[in-house]
């Protein structure tokens, strides 16, 4: 009895301006490519059960093409393999008002596919061999009222949930908290979604991680593999299956303190020449860069890197700004402030918006609340 645990697909995620030869945003195409790869591998593995632990879509109202493409892939997979599949909704799939419905409901019409989008539900397979207790994001918000527990009459009991288990493990915002008591029960496997990195929590509790780099800070995930989990319920054995994803490179940070403009331009070039940035998503950070040097960087060279890479992001931090940030006496410096700041500093922005103005204004709003 084996299951495959997949999570945080974020289909429809888009970033940067590059499109592929079909006019589709390149990053959206990348995410679909990872999903397709996963389905092909899973078909070969032929598990008894496929669990998708939420955040199927990046936004709760996916575009028509995203929706159609997903529907067709799932239908083709179900038809070809007959693998029983359970999908729960994550916070990205959840709708915010009562007069709306979760789009994942649409997949209920596909044979072998079960969708749990709103309320907690226990899915029992006829043989009584396995039950899956499903806790989508919306149900987790009321988790204290629930009494979900393993069924003693059943051979294997699995919990499928989308939320935050540990505050230190957070790289996607807006998830609900998973109660500790629920996790401590005697589940044979707990399939979690929400944290975008593959992680063993304890016993048989796992985050599968996202299938591509779609979280707020992709640079933290630059070196890690993306993929999905296969779990053998009888032998309690776990296998992580990596997927091929877009190359993501966080180049070594450059400290501009005491350097001339020639030295800086050379360091920036050296970093690129020591690796292959072709078609990759790349970040180069330069800290302590005096404002006087900012305009003198070799932008012709930087534009060349931008053409070579899928996306080359140059992040410069002027000395003066860092000083101001430290001296700001009115802003609270607690966890929420730091979290908001990090989010604002890294979330994708339209190119016409100035990052430092955006961060400053966002933190001012936070301060007002
Ligand atoms: Mn997610």
Give an overview in words.
There is one protein chain. The protein is α/β, with parallel strands linked by helices and 369 residues long. It has three domains: 2-242, 4-Layer Sandwich (Purple Acid Phosphatase, chain A, domain 2), CATH 3.60.21; 247-325; 328-369, no CATH class. Helix content is 30%, strand content 22%. The protein has helices at 26-45, 64-81, 137-140, 180-184, 261-273, 291-294, 299-308, 319-327, 335-346, 355-368; strands at residues 2-6, 49-52, 84-88, 113-116, 121-124, 130-135, 156-162, 189-193, 199-202, 205-207, 227-232, 237-242, 248-250, 254-255, 281-289, 311-318. The protein has a six-stranded mixed beta sheet with strand order 4-3-2-1-11-12, covered by helices on one side. Strand 9 and strand 10 form a beta hairpin. Helix 1 packs parallel to helix 2 and helix 9 runs antiparallel to helix 10. The termini are far apart. It binds manganese (II) ion. Residues 8, 55, 90, 92, 172, 194, 196 line the site of manganese (II) ion (MN).
């Amino acid at each position: 009895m084996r299951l495959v645990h997949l999570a945080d697909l974020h289909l429809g995620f888009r970033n940067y301006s590059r499109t592929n030869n079909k006019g589709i945003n390149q990053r959206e195409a990348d995410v679909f490519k990872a999903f397709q790869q996963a389905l092909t591998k899973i078909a070969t593995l032929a598990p008894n059960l496929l669990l998708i632990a939420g955040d199927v879509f990046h936004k709760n109202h996916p575009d028509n093409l995203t929706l159609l493409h997903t529907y067709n892939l799932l239908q083709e997979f179900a038809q070809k393999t007959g693998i029983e599949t359970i999908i729960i909704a994550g916070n990205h799939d959840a709708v915010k008002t009562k007069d709306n419905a979760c789009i994942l409901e649409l997949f209920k019409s596909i044979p072998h596919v079960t969708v749990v989008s709103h309320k907690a539900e226990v899915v029992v397979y006829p043989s009584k061999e396995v039950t899956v207790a499903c806790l989508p994001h919306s149900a987790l918000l009321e988790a204290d009222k629930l009494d979900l527990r393993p069924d003693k009459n059943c051979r294997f009991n699995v919990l499928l949930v989308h939320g935050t288990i540990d505050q230190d493990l957070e790289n996607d915002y807006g998830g609900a908290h998973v109660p500790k008591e629920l996790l401590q029960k005697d589940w044979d496997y707990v399939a979690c979604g929400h944290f975008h990195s593959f992680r063993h929590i304890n016993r048989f509790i796992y985050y599968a991680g996202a299938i591509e780099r779609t979280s707020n800070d992709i640079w933290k995930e630059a070196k890690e593999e993306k993929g999905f989990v296969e779990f053998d319920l009888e032998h309690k054995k776990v296998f992580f299956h990596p997927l091929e994803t877009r190359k993501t490179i966080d180049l070594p940070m450059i400290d501009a303190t005491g350097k001339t403009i020639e030295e800086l331009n050379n360091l920036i070039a050296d970093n690129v020449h020591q690796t292959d940035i072709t078609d990759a998503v790349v970040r180069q950070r330069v800290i302590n860069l005096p404002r006087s040097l900012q305009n003198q960087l070799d932008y012709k060279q930087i534009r060349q890197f931008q053409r070579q890479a899928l996306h080359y992001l140059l992040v410069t931090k002027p000395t003066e700004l860092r000083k101001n940030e430290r001296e700001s006496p009115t802003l609270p410096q607690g966890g929420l402030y730091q979290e908001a700041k990090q989010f604002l500093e890294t979330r994708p922005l339209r190119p016409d918006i100035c990052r430092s103005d955006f961060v400053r204004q966002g933190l001012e709003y936070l301060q007002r609340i």
